[in-house]
Design a protein that fits this description.
single chain, about 650 residues, alpha+beta, 23 helices, about 10% strand, binds adenosine-5'-triphosphate, P-loop_NTPase, P-loop containing nucleoside triphosphate hydrolase protein, ABC_transporter-like_CS, ABC_transporter-like_ATP-bd
Length: about 650
């Protein structure tokens, strides 16, 4: 590409991105003329967004209805919600009867007490019913949410676990994006059900109450005007809440403020336990404190996280004319009432009864879920709908490293004599790295050969291993395995035929037994083979010395919860040793770097152990296997190769 076209591309790119400076932050938003604009930018866009994602939500509902427990709970939830929605209208109808009672009382000078009793009883029954329904709702939501969470946890696990390295990074962030931050602690799916039902029921409740109000006030002078006014305040409020910060879906906030960057770095240095050792032994605490204060002073009060800056911005609406008008809306019915009373003093009782009725309606729309406008609810719902879409799209994510079709090797016994590898003009660039990790590399290693690759740091040695195991595919050139193009071979077969120890190996958060056993899942439950691999890797002895032996967790996957004492007692140090002792709670086992490496070597050997029917792997790939081993361990490890 020429320098000129690169520049014009950059200019084009700049036009497609809006840059805003907020405090120390630079906000870059992608302009998306016809697609997804984030919540609140326009009602029609939000609704369009909801509609776009609707098929995924229908898929989600079908999925839920196929789970028997969810089906029962969901149906029960909908019935409870519908009943709860109709209650206020029923109560309102009976309260409305008070009007005719007042009218009759004014004309005939007598009060029909049976109507009064009816109204009181129905009102009481509605209140009790509302309580019961609220209780039932709570009882249903938790189990419904729990079973949804379980089903979707399994689903997400299945979708993510089969992704390869280049695909995983992006997909994992997709999955995380699929879960908007929620204060309710409910699952995304359950939130969608709750919010959609709320919106639908808001409409039903609004219409039913409106119908009752109009029916009751129709006969009265100015009755419809009062009805309109009593409803206008909550609707006006809703309109106010729909304004949110317009935001493109693709945005990034970054800061180049040197002092803020320095403050954040020093904060990490001071607070993260990984640096504590150097912090203490290096005598640097005084220096970094002075540096932190200096940077903090230079940044001043702008040293806020982006989310905080945003919150401040969105609070600035409270001084607008609209918000002041909104606050005064509720006095309008009272003003009309006063004028009316001045003109016709006789109508005071009837008017008072009408006002009570109106406030009943108006209040019910000012309490949750009505306090949040349907517009705002719809925006949040749109966000969650998009989450569901992301979740289901994960099913369709294709691995970047495409699987081959040819079985490998054709004859399993051929693995005994090893596998040949050939690189032909291989070039490779890591995604997102402009520098080539390998450029035009060619070599051949014959089957059964021991080959050591030596080179300066960063020359691409580890990368060669990643290409042989097809963690990545070359950007250019060909890799041949036993003279066959590596891309044509079935991935699972290829990987089963080799045993690899990467330089940046990790231990799994499972017990040591499985840490080694997962080297070969066919033998993962064979304790004898696991012990043999541990022996070959030089790990057997120290594992046996651990309190839990092969059952030891290196890092506990679940941490205990401890009581937190607040208030006056908080200054006292609390001794948990007794409860820990009785509960047999152990601290994490700390292994040395060399012991960790022996475990990793053992896992690699596990893969190369032959089973009764099949030979071992045809190729062992080790990336600096002895870096943390002592000379004796290094010697015995090398003897095993
Ligand atoms: N995941 C990655 N993403 C981007 N670039 C990477 C990644 N891993 C390695 N690189 C880059 O690729 C080049 C080769 O790295 P590689 O790890 O293969 O070198 P090496 O020869 O094994 O180094 P060392 O002797 O230090 O282990 C380096 O320039 C490195 O910065």
């Amino acid at each position: 590409m020429s320098a000129h076209s690169e520049t014009s591309d950059l200019q084009d790119d700049a036009h497609r991105v809006k840059h805003t400076r907020i405090g120390i932050w630079d906000l870059y938003e992608e302009r998306q003329p016809h697609s997804l604009l984030m919540l609140g930018s326009s009602i029609s866009e939000t609704y369009a967004w909801v509609l776009q994602n609707m098929p995924y939500v229908v898929r989600m509902l079908k999925h839920m209805y196929s789970i028997p427990q969810c089906f029962i709970l969901l149906s029960a939830y909908l019935v409870v919600e519908l009943l709860g929605t109709l209650m206020p209208a029923i109560s309102l109808w009976y309260t409305g009867q008070l009007l005719s009672l007042v009218e009759t009382a004014m004309e005939a000078r007598t009060v029909d007490t049976s109507v009064l009793v009816d109204v009181a009883v129905v009102h009481l029954a509605c209140t009790i019913m509302m309580r019961l329904l609220k209780y039932a709702r709570r009882c249903i939501i938790r189990p419904m949410d729990n079973s949804i969470k379980r089903v979707y946890a399994e689903r997400l696990f299945k979708s993510l676990v089969c992704l390869d390295v280049p695909t995983y990074g992006a997909s994992y962030s997709m999955a995380r994006f699929g879960y908007p931050v929620s204060s309710s602690n409910l699952s995304l799916q359950c939130e969608i059900i709750v919010m959609s039902t709320d919106i639908a029921m808001t409409v039903v409740r609004l219409l039913s109450q409106l119908l009752v109000l109009v029916t009751v006030l129709r006969e009265q002078q100015h009755g419809l005007l009062l009805a309109t006014l009593s409803l206008s305040q909550p609707i006006f409020n809703w309109d106010g809440t729909r304004k949110a910060v317009a935001r493109s879906l693709v945005w990034v906030a970054t800061t180049t403020n040197k002092d803020f960057l320095r403050m954040s770095a020093l904060e990490q240095l001071a607070l993260e336990s990984a640096y504590r050792k150097e912090l203490v032994t290096g005598n640097i605490s005084e220096y970094i404190t002075a540096q932190f204060c200096e940077s903090s002073r230079r940044v001043g009060d702008d040293a806020l996280e982006f989310s905080e800056v945003e919150r401040v911005r969105s609070n600035q609406d409270c001084l607008s004319v609209v918000s002041i008008l909104r606050e005064t809306m509720h006095v309008l019915p009272q003003i009309i009432f006063t004028l009316r009373v001045v003109q016709e003093p006789m109508t005071v009782p009837l008017y008072l009864a009408s006002l009570v009725l109106m406030y009943q309606v108006s209040n019910s729309f000012s309490s949750p879920p009505f306090s949040v406008s349907p517009f705002r609810q719809c925006s949040s719902l749109a966000e969650r709908f998009n989450g569901v879409r992301t979740l289901y799209e994960l099913d369709d994510v294709r691995n970047k490293v495409a699987d081959g079709t040819k079985p490998f090797p054709e004859d399993k016994q051929s693995l005994r004599s090893g596998i040949s590898i050939e690189f032909r003009n291989v070039t490779f660039q890591y995604p997102g790295n402009e520098k080539h990790a390998l450029q035009n590399v060619s070599f051949k290693i014959e089957a059964g050969q021991l080959c050591v690759i030596v080179g300066v740091n960063g020359s691409g040695k580890s990368t060669i291993l990643k290409l042989i195991s097809r963690i990545y595919d070359p950007t250019d050139g060909t890799i041949l395995i036993d003279d066959k193009d590596i891309k044509t071979l079935k991935l699972a077969d290829l990987r089963a035929a080799m045993s690899i120890l990467f330089q940046d190996y990790n231990h799994f958060p499972v017990p040591i037994r499985e840490n080694i056993g997962l080297g070969n899942t066919a033998l993962a439950n064979d304790d004898e083979k696991i012990r043999e691999a541990a022996h070959l890797g030089g790990a057997e002895e120290f594992i046996d010395d651990l309190p839990d032996g092969f059952d030891t967790y290196l890092n506990r996957p679940v941490y205990e919860s401890y009581s937190s004492i607040e208030g006056a007692l908080s200054h006292k140090s609390i001794d948990f040793s007794l409860v820990r002792r009785v509960g047999n709670i152990r601290t994490d086992q700390r292994l040395s770097g060399g012991q960790m490496q022996r475990l990793a070597v053992s896992r690699t050997f596990m893969r190369s152990l032959p089973t009764e029917t099949e030979p071992s792997t045809g190729m062992l790939l080790f990336d600096e296997p002895s870096a943390s081993l002592d000379p004796t361990a290094e010697h015995s490890a090398l003897l095993c190769f």
